[in-house]
Amino acid sequence: MTKLLEWLFGVSLVGAVWALVSFDLLDLSLPQTYREVAWPMPLYLLVSFGCYSLATVGYRVATFNDCEEAAKELQGQIKEAKEDLRRRGLKM
Amino acid sequence: MATGVDQAVGMSLVVFSLLLFTYYSVWVIILPFVDNDHILHKYFLPREYSVIVPGVAAVILLLCIGAFTAVIMWKNRKPKKVD
């Protein structure tokens, strides 16, 4: 079985369980509060995934190291390249 | 370590997402189990809004992305060469 089929199978299984609980398809008559919690679950998972992504991006922005030497080296290389091109006649 | 503005922006993103996650979790998961006359309900909108607000926010986000893409593509259009 391919990975796609596995994922689709898993997703449809979870979706079936969610539909059963939220819309009471089997007439299990669960307490109303459980149904109220289960119903927004897909949206809740999406929102929490978005929050996790935002937090990860923010954390990595805050802890990214500045590389002083690499920056200086790059500036030097840019100057070199400009000089070289100017010598060859490219107007900058 | 990143300095100055980078750290401030990064940390504010983390704090904002934590606050958003906590508020939304309480709204969706904890509030139905709390009695209707508890004072906590005062701080949260009715539960229908817990679905409508993220839906509207998603639509607005998609609109912004679409508008940005359209502006960039408009700026980069090249007139066709006439042979």
From TrEMBL, chain A:
It comes from the Eukaryota. One of its GO terms (biological process) is GPI anchor biosynthetic process. The chain crosses the membrane at residues 43-62. It is found in: Endoplasmic reticulum membrane. The keyword NADP does not apply. Pfam families: DPM3. Keywords: Coiled coil, Endoplasmic reticulum, Membrane, Transmembrane, Transmembrane helix. GO terms for cellular component: dolichol-phosphate-mannose synthase complex; endoplasmic reticulum membrane. Pathway: Protein modification; protein glycosylation. It is a multi-pass membrane protein. Residues 64-91 form a coiled coil. Belongs to the DPM3 family. Component of the dolichol-phosphate mannose (DPM) synthase complex. Stabilizer subunit of the dolichol-phosphate mannose (DPM) synthase complex; tethers catalytic subunit to the ER. This is Dolichol-phosphate mannosyltransferase subunit 3. It comes from Zoarces viviparus.
Automatic annotation (TrEMBL), chain B:
Pfam families: DPM2 (PF07297). GO terms for molecular function: enzyme regulator activity. It is found in: Endoplasmic reticulum membrane. The keyword Membrane applies. Pathway: Protein modification; protein glycosylation. It is a multi-pass membrane protein. It comes from the Eukaryota. Keywords: Endoplasmic reticulum, Membrane, Transmembrane, Transmembrane helix. The chain crosses the membrane at residues 12-31, 51-74. Belongs to the DPM2 family. Regulatory subunit of the dolichol-phosphate mannose (DPM) synthase complex; essential for the ER localization. Regulates the biosynthesis of dolichol phosphate-mannose. Regulatory subunit of the dolichol-phosphate mannose (DPM) synthase complex; essential for the ER localization and stable expression of DPM1. Part of the glycosylphosphatidylinositol-N-acetylglucosaminyltransferase (GPI-GnT) complex that catalyzes the transfer of N-acetylglucosamine from UDP-N-acetylglucosamine to phosphatidylinositol and participates in the first step of GPI biosynthesis. May act by regulating the GPI-GNT complex. Component of the dolichol-phosphate mannose (DPM) synthase complex composed of DPM1, DPM2 and DPM3; in the complex interacts directly with DPM3. Component of the glycosylphosphatidylinositol-N-acetylglucosaminyltransferase (GPI-GnT) complex composed at least by PIGA, PIGC, PIGH, PIGP, PIGQ, PIGY and DPM2. Interacts with PIGA, PIGC and PIGQ. This is Dolichol phosphate-mannose biosynthesis regulatory protein.
